């Protein structure tokens, strides 16, 4: 079989017009016309690894078991560093027949010219002849998997406009297919679909950002996923909508989404961690620090331990530290000594030092110095609320150091404007239970009450109960996260039903006298 060689030098191929795209599409179709399935063992090592995952996808469809699909998706993190346009082109020409329209769409998305395609065809000339009679078309799951790899390649290449257009076509195709074996793949496709639009100009939090136009399609996908009981897509789209609303500071709409929807109980662990993180951010903005603290603690515990998810672990830990400071607690020092957090949490460590000693001037200086970092982390507005906590912490430190201290000294040490403001702040701290003290308004001093025995209170028991509840919750979530083959119970019921039918036939034959009880029991020597 001779290799088709051509070099189009028309003006259309050098232009960016619609005719140029049509000409390039014709060149791609001509190249694919000379290609059949190729032997995977002589392909590029990366292409061979990709085609190995096709076997997992076929087993997932044959056995209706999503675990094989998840195994193929987990390999993307190791493949993405080695993905190139040539690798994707070789996978396409090794997989599809020349008449397959999906191959042309995928090849056009890779943005390879005709000469590069011909080089790939010439590389697998022998395999073309060996697989000339192979007319088997790939299953839709393989189409979507290759499309996801193209999404990853385009995103890493910063080709956001083409990636957004390609992703829009992909998610529409997935909705039309409506196959339950595509659920896990659809969740990943929607993830990159949203990610591409976030990178388009103008970027959030601008109200003209493309992410606002994206919400209608995401809400429609969420509605379809709920009706089809597609839990993977439901969990993914829910977290994407929360991320979308938070990017433009639409907290009210995000809260309405949380209240009007139910997050699937059997969602993947990574989606649960993302959902809890966004929920914790919403509750922190709404001043519900206790709820925010619980959600963020769960998010950090569910965060993966490998280096791939370091960014998420750092973001959730930063927000958790700020929430703990707003609650009046000081995070443990061991948090800042972790290798993954040591450098990222340095501004927050200095912030905690200022809050812990109640240094108001030092706190304001640190906020001003690292304002760009706090803005980038999305914690700046929450950190500005800590000013009152710094003053309360300073009053607490003074109450522990002095049994009696004048309001004038409090005003000087905390850098307050007047004694009246110091008196108001001390009174509010007493009312909130921050300190145990009393104010002598006539003589102008604060009298600290003698501290009692903390073990005589319910505080140790409550702390112990909280730890037990966290352990039990973790156990329950681990049990819920266990995955089993789908419809396995039906196979067991079928086997049990067949066994009962054999027993009935055996009992009927014994009754009719066709078989003796000794024969039914097999060879058996009595004792």
UniProtKB/TrEMBL annotation:
<dbReference type="InterPro" id="IPR050756">
    <property type="entry name" value="CSN3"/>
</dbReference>
<dbReference type="Pfam" id="PF01399">
    <property type="entry name" value="PCI"/>
</dbReference>
<dbReference type="InterPro" id="IPR013586">
    <property type="entry name" value="PSMD3_C"/>
</dbReference>
<feature type="domain" description="PCI">
    <location>
        <begin position="273"/>
        <end position="453"/>
    </location>
</feature>
<dbReference type="GO" id="GO:0006511">
    <property type="term" value="P:ubiquitin-dependent protein catabolic process"/>
</dbReference>
<feature type="region of interest" description="Disordered">
    <location>
        <begin position="497"/>
        <end position="527"/>
    </location>
</feature>
<protein>
    <submittedName>
        <fullName>26S proteasome non-ATPase-like protein regulatory subunit 3</fullName>
    </submittedName>
</protein>
<feature type="compositionally biased region" description="Acidic residues">
    <location>
        <begin position="512"/>
        <end position="527"/>
    </location>
</feature>
<dbReference type="GO" id="GO:0008541">
    <property type="term" value="C:proteasome regulatory particle, lid subcomplex"/>
</dbReference>
<dbReference type="GO" id="GO:0042176">
    <property type="term" value="P:regulation of protein catabolic process"/>
</dbReference>
<feature type="compositionally biased region" description="Basic and acidic residues">
    <location>
        <begin position="497"/>
        <end position="511"/>
    </location>
</feature>
<dbReference type="GO" id="GO:0030234">
    <property type="term" value="F:enzyme regulator activity"/>
</dbReference>
<keyword id="KW-0647">Proteasome</keyword>
<comment type="similarity">
    <text>Belongs to the proteasome subunit S3 family.</text>
</comment>
<dbReference type="InterPro" id="IPR036390">
    <property type="entry name" value="WH_DNA-bd_sf"/>
</dbReference>
<dbReference type="Pfam" id="PF25573">
    <property type="entry name" value="TPR_PSMD3_N"/>
</dbReference>
<dbReference type="InterPro" id="IPR057985">
    <property type="entry name" value="TPR_PSMD3_N"/>
</dbReference>
<dbReference type="InterPro" id="IPR000717">
    <property type="entry name" value="PCI_dom"/>
</dbReference>
<dbReference type="Pfam" id="PF08375">
    <property type="entry name" value="Rpn3_C"/>
</dbReference>
